[in-house]
């Protein structure tokens, strides 16, 4: 990894009680799904299938972090932006941290631009179950694999905890009833309506338990600028992927002037599919199950000097 100084901004977040957040989310999801159940529960052991996470829980000290950002990729890639999950683990000031979330994978070792699904526990009980997904150049299909090492590139949006058991939010919904297909977007907008400019961040995992989802994988870097949403759409590879899909990341209800990517989730599976989650494609069949916790702080690491231009959400 390139050894360079990285500015880190730390901001305290609004941390409402889990019971209060559960009520807010129950009301938000009832507008979009026929069956909704949001409760505060003891976190199940997330190391078990189908979640297969690197730590059992989402509790202890908590935070979210936004590393780098879209301007490192758009309009032209900045190949100097190489990061390490090991270093991020130290920067968020949580001992034995458990990191889950979305980012850009290590093109420098994979030989091609790719998506990263972060899933790593540090400390004495260290475990790395991070995956990357990339486009198979022979037929355009998805390649899902574990990368070597802990380096990544360009950007990442991660939920951080100590991986301990404890109380979390459990969200179960099924059968979409509106035009809204994006599971995490419902939660973020519900929190935004309730808390306004008080930033509330949730992170952890949700499972597309039944149905299918619209997923993208980035192609390799272009030599011409990605300077419009239309060009980005043509550059990405889109797939309809099958459940179960394990999605990891975070969302935040309000950007406290840090130029954040306000929601970002990537997914992996036991059946070889994964990438960037957009929305479900089978509303009558879909079922989601999520386990989230509230973050206490946000760490903005190596914020780009220019703001997001495209592809922010």
Shape: globular
The CATH homologous superfamily is named Hypothetical protein, similar to alpha- acetolactate decarboxylase, domain 2
Write down the domain tally. 1
Structural class: mainly beta
Give a quick account of the main beta sheet: strands, pairing sense, barrel closure: 10 strands, mixed
Report mean pLDDT, rounded to a whole number.
95
CATH class: Alpha Beta
Q: Estimate the helix proportion, in percent.
A: 10-25%
Q: What fraction of the residues are assigned to beta strands by DSSP?
A: 35-45%
**Low-pLDDT segments, ≥5 res:** none
Looking at the structure, the CATH topology is 60s Ribosomal Protein L30, Chain: A
Distance between the termini: 28 Å
Q: How many whole angstroms does the radius of gyration measure? A: 18 Å
The total of beta strands comes to 19
Tally the helices: 5
**Helix and strand sequence:** EHEEEHEHEEEEEEHEEHEEEEEE
CATH architecture: 2-Layer Sandwich
Subunit structure: Monomer.
InterPro entries: C11orf54_DUF1907
Subcellular location: Nucleus
Keywords: Hydrolase, Metal-binding, Nucleus, Zinc
Provide tags for this entry.
metal-binding; ten-stranded mixed beta sheet; mainly beta; 5 helices; 40% strand; 313 residues; 60s Ribosomal Protein L30, Chain: A; single chain
Structural description of this entry:
The protein is mainly beta and 313 residues long. It has one domain: Hypothetical protein, similar to alpha- acetolactate decarboxylase, domain 2 (60s Ribosomal Protein L30, Chain: A, 2-Layer Sandwich), CATH 3.30.1330. The chain has helices at residues 18-29, 85-91, 107-110, 183-195, 229-235, and strands at residues 8-12, 33-42, 63-68, 82-84, 98-104, 115-121, 127-128, 131-135, 142-145, 151-161, 167-176, 201-210, 212-217, 237-242, 245-252, 263-268, 275-280, 287-294, 297-301. Strands 1, 3, 4, 5, 6, 7, 8, 9, 10 and 19 form a ten-stranded mixed beta sheet that branches. Strand 16 and strand 17 (275-280) form a beta hairpin. Helix 1 packs across helix 4. It is globular, with a radius of gyration of 18 Å.
């Amino acid at each position: 990894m390139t050894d360079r100084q990285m500015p880190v901004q730390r901001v305290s977040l609004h941390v409402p009680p889990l019971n209060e957040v559960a009520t807010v989310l129950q009301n938000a999801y009832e507008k979009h799904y026929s069956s909704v159940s949001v409760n505060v529960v003891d976190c199940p052991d997330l190391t078990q299938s189908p979640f297969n996470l690197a730590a059992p829980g989402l509790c202890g000290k908590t935070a979210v972090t936004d590393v780098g950002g879209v301007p490192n990729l758009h309009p032209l890639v900045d190949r100097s932006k190489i990061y390490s999950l090991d270093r991020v683990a130290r920067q968020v000031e949580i001992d034995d941290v458990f990191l889950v979330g979305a980012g850009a994978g290590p093109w420098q070792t994979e030989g091609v631009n790719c998506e990263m699904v972060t899933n790593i526990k540090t400390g004495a009980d260290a475990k790395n179950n991070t995956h990357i997904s990339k486009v198979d150049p022979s037929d355009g299909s998805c390649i899902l694999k574990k990368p070597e090492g802990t380096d990544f590139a360009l950007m990442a949006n991660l939920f951080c905890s100590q991986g301990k058991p404890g109380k979390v939010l459990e969200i179960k919904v099924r059968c979409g009833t509106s035009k809204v297909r994006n599971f995490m977007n419902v939660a973020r907008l519900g929190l935004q309506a309730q808390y306004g400019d008080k930033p509330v961040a949730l992170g952890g995992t949700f499972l597309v338990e039944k149905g299918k989802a619209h997923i993208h994988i980035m192609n390799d870097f272009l030599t011409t600028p990605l300077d419009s949403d239309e060009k980005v759409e043509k550059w990405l590879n889109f797939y309809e992927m099958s459940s179960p899909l394990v999605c990891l990341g975070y969302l935040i209800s309000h950007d406290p002037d840090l130029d954040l990517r306000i929601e970002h989730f990537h997914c992996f599976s036991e059946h070889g599919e994964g990438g960037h989650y957009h929305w479900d494609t089978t509303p009558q069949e879909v079922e989601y199950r999520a386990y989230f916790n509230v973050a206490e702080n946000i760490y903005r690491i190596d914020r780009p000097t220019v703001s997001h231009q495209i592809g922010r959400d």
